[in-house]
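Whether sequence alone determines local backbone shape is best considered at the level of individual chains. Part of our work consisted of pairing the sequence of a single chain with a tokenised description of its backbone. This step matters because it turns folding into a mapping between discrete strings. For completeness, the protein is quoted in full, as a sequence line and a line of structure tokens:

_____
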Amino acid sequence: MSEPDIKRAGFAAIIGAPNAGKSTLTNWLVGGKVSIVTHKVQTTRFPLRGVFQHEDAQIVLIDTPGIFRARRRLDRAMVKAAWAGASDADAVVHLIDAASWVDERKGVQLSAAQKLSIEDDRRVIEALKESHRKVFLALNKIDLFSHDETLPLIAELRGAGVYEEIFMISSLNGDGVDALVSALAAKMPEGVALYPPDQSADVPMRVLAAEITREKLMLRLHQELPYQLMVETETWKDLKDGSVRIEQAVIVGRAGHKAMALGKGGATIKAVSMAAREELSALLDRKVHLFLFVKVDEKWQEKRERYVDFGLEFDV
């Protein structure tokens, strides 16, 4: 059976604390396929977006993982970019780890991560108050506690005056997600599809991981190799202990550039690897084993597929 024609299309942004479950919700909504559909070359971060369809509406989902715990320069840039994306979106979902809030109300001793999560949530609420914009609230991880325990929390958060609707969901098993999706679809403006279905990608984190390493290289090298290198994730293997092994190729156009990327005694590439690994570990919320290799490809800048694969414009 063919899919219904698209009559509405727009953007929906998911915002929230790093451990709220945004990545899990994104994967559920788009069926495990998230697409890089836009990329601004000169920014330190690019929007990570996934396209999916609900009935006659196409929703371009803006995923903003871990953006509110802004401890480093790049984290602060991500926060700014995320708020910009949210302000331009047709619908915004504030995803909250309800389990942490329920534990707090019960007097349970919270972990440092839970405390940070709640602080981030409250910071988002204050920012929403200042913006005078109402958004959807999705209370996540409802599978971890009883419904009765959420009633006081719902009353408290509704009292903030920033939420148009409140949804109880589990991004892990999909409970309650259908109602949220229907509400998002209803928010999409009338119009034709924004993106064709073939612009989705099976393994989007490979692209994001490559861009993080490229950015660390640019920060480390400054103006020495501004746009004369690229990074490609060659292998991505999830390990049994929950960590992930990532192998990436840093591709440069000249042998001299390879020496610059490596640095004296390999100091530069080691520093880049350490910084990228730290960023990726925070983003993925698990241990990352990152291995970088520098390769020379004199004609990589003339290969259209290199640009297309990473969401870059070739004919510019």
Q: What stands out?
A: The domain at 8-198 is CATH 3.40.50.300 (Rossmann fold). The chain has two domains: 8-198, 203-309.
